[in-house]
Specification:
Blueprint lengths: L1 H22 L5 H4 L1 H18 L1 H9 L1 E2 L2 E2 H15 L14 H26 L5 H14 L7 H8 L3 H29 L6 H30 L1 H37 L1 H28 L4 H12 L3 H12 L4 H29 L7
Helix pairs in contact: 3-4, 3-11, 5-10, 5-11, 5-14, 6-7, 6-9, 6-12, 6-13, 7-12, 7-14, 7-15, 8-9, 8-13, 8-15, 9-10, 9-13, 10-11, 10-14, 11-12, 11-15, 12-13, 12-15, 13-15, 14-15
Length: 363
Amino acid sequence: MVEEDIENRAIHKLSETEEPKQESRKINYFEKLLPIWVVLCILLGIILSQFVPEISETINSLQIGGISIPIGICLFLMMYPAMLNLQASELKKLRRNPKPIILTLVSNWLVAPFVGLAMVNIFLPGTAKDILELKVAIILLSSSPCTAMVLVWGWMAKGNQEQNVVNTSLNTITIIFLYVAMVSLLTGIQNIPVNSLLLLISLIFFIGIPLLLGIISKRLIIASKGLSWFNDSYKPFVGKISIVALLTTLVVLFSLNGDVLINNPDLLLLVSIPLLVGFVIVVAYNVFITKIFKMKYKEAVITVIIGSSSHFEIAIATAIAMYGVGSVAALGTTMGLFWEVPVMLAIVYLGKFLAKRGFWKSN
């Protein structure tokens, strides 16, 4: 009993010293303007597709087994930094306050995927090739919980960062085991044939390998340079590379899809409506479920953010692997990224607004 009391005091003391550090983490100027950079890169990609089509043709020719090498490198660079956030030791803290984690897992794997399926049924009837690819794009996005960008949104919302790290670490593990099964289930319900082997290859290449390299490099760097250098220097550096890779991916994808966009603007509307309606439904569910379970703001806002976000990197990678770089499916998953940035920012400000109104319990 005495030992347990000492341990509890130590944990409380540790959380007191860590919390200010977490809240003092500032979003830099470049990150604050991320939505603007996203729009500019999309416009740049479309302009390149019209005025310098040779670039798109060259990029599209660089393939191995149907997978674009430039896109593969960019997506890999987007994924690797996210894998550095995996902290298996943090999962031991689940027993302390499991409720937010359980609610988030329910949202990620039971609510969001089937909301996505409902959106497909309501807004995308028909069996035309383009429609089928848009259906798959929405299923890929709704079946992949986020593991990376939520750390940025969580800091902006001043939520519980310990919960954020635990949840993203757990999502990294669950996506390995559940992603292929969930996508196969939902596409099967829609009678859409998908190549399960390509799904598995995408999972291995864009989740498994970055995860393995993340674990190995993290241990080697901490052993040689120390934990402080890893957290304060290495992770911020590769985090910047991740954002550059994201923006580069947008330029490349929209340079390859520029003609599809300009010649078929209706496709943009077709995929945007179910994506946005789906976002609203899932966000509303998470907001009210955290209220029903009487959660405090810091835990509630992280639950809403993670429970409402998607892992657009793996969705884009899978769409490209199955249908090609210039496909409608790739365009659809990219639009998921396009809309997720403003939606996540809106959640940050909505959370702060609701907190001021006393919607959640104060911390």
